[in-house]
Every structure is written in structure tokens, then in C-alpha cells.
Description:
The protein is α+β, with helices and mostly antiparallel strands.
Amino acid sequence: xxxxxxxxxxxxxxxxxxxxxxxxxxxxxxxxxxxxxxxxxxxxxxxxxxxxxxxxxxxxxxxxxxxxxxxxxxxxxxxxxxxxxxxxxxxxxxxxxxxxxxxxxxxxxxxxxxxxxxxxxxxxxxxxxxxxxxxxxxxxxxxxxxxxxxxxxxxxxxxxxxxxxxxxxxxxxxxxxxxxxxxxxxxxxxxxxxxxxxxxxxxxxxxxxxxxxxxxxxxxxxxxxxxxxxxxxxxxxxxxxxxxxxxxxxxxxxxxxxxxxxxxxxxxxxxxxxxxxxxxxxxxxxxxxxxxxxxxxxxxxxxxxxxxxxxxxxxxxx
Length: 318
């Protein structure tokens, strides 16, 4: 009897099934695509890091330059006598010898005015008049003219010279930090006094440093006739701290948020990101010249747009 030869392949030597084939193909594809995907992720992370570094550096350099240039123009303007002041005009020279502060103060305290130096709130009184003169200034950005307010001590002198030549001298009575919901210091009635305001915390902190000073020639008026405790006590009682429930809604005279600002803020971020991401491809194809011309221009424009609209997300006086 003839032996039957089994021609079927050994099970161990069979070709992979369709499922196994798809698995192998998928693994091979992952090996091919992973390097590219990983490179894109690294580029995005690098773009974010570089954007933040550029923003911080540009904010310090460009902001300080803008402040210095504005102060030069304001100093020249201050030398010209005038009786009528518009928003943004040089109004006073503020000097604080203890801090080395010598700044021209403008009319108005919105984000645009504060880029050039401290500004007087338009809803506060003029220096020397009965009531509260409120001047706001940046703590860190745009030269940080009010960065050291917290270091003032009771009795330190503050001088305000108007464009007409009148000088009002104040003595520091109280230095304190208040929360964003504490706005009692913005009340403008009461004795002749000066209030300096700046940010107290970081870029996302709404707390404020508030320095209250009494006019050196503070006299007894109808507003403080019942106060016999002296100048410092008069100022302290005129501007106490309070909570939001006692004072009502916080005063937001200079709220700069809005749809237009938000669009500009996002535009600046987009220009920076696009410039950095496109720069990688341009370098491979055309070299550094194209990177600097095209990508560099996009990043520079984005940084400038972002810097001048960052007040959308940080306190105006930071």
C-alpha cells in the first residue's frame, strides 16, 4: 500500500493571518510616523517656551523704553505753562525723595496713559483742593515707577509741582495692602490728601498697595472740624479699609476689557505662534535670512500687539 504524503504546511510555518498582517503593518506605520509626530510635539512645546521668554524679555525692554520716551516728551511739555489740561497731558511732577522717584504725572489713569508714567484719576480732586487726589502707577511694567511704594514709611515727604509752579507737600500717613474688593481709598471727599496706588502682587493678583498722605498744610475745615487727633489720624479715618459688602460694587472706572481688546490679544498670540512654527520650515528650505525676514517679522509684530493689550488679563497697575 502506497504511503500518503501530507503536503499541508506545518502549522508553525504558516503565513500570518490577516489580523496579524494588519498588526504588523500598523506597527511599521507607527515606527515611520512617530518620529514626525514627536518632532511636531517638540516644536509646539519649544514654540510656547520661546514665546513666553520673548514676551517677558520684550515687556521689560520695550516697556521701559516706551516709559522713558514718554517721560522725555512729557518733561518738555511740562515746561510750557497752560491752564487747560486734556487727558494724557503732563499735569504734575511727582517727587518722592525716599524712593528716588521723579516722574511726570499725566491727566488720566487708563492703561494707555499709564504706559508713559503715573496718572491722576480724572474723578479725583486736583492737588491742593479739599478732598482726595488719587495717582496710579505701574509696579513692574513700563518702567515700574511705583514698584517700591510698599517701602515708604510714615512721615516720608511727597512733593507735587503743578505746571503753574504751585508745590503741594504731603507726609505719608499710612501704607497698606488691600484686596481688589476694597475700594474705600478711592473716596474723594474729606480732607486734603494724596493717595498713591499700585499693584501689590503678581500679574494675576488684584491686590493693591495704597499709600495715603496728608497735605503738610492740612487745616481744620468743615470736613474734618470734629477731628482733633492730628493730621495722620485725619487721613487714617478718611480712608479706612472696608469690605465689598459695606462699600457696594468695586469701582471700575478704568475697566479696559472688551471684545476689541480680546481680539487683539488673541491676534498677538497667534502671530507669535505662527512665526515660530513657520520659522522651522523656512530654515530648512531657505536658511536664516528667510527666518529673520518672515518669521521674525511675525513674531515681533505679535509681541508688540500682545504687550499693548496684555492689560486684558493683568491689573492695569501691574
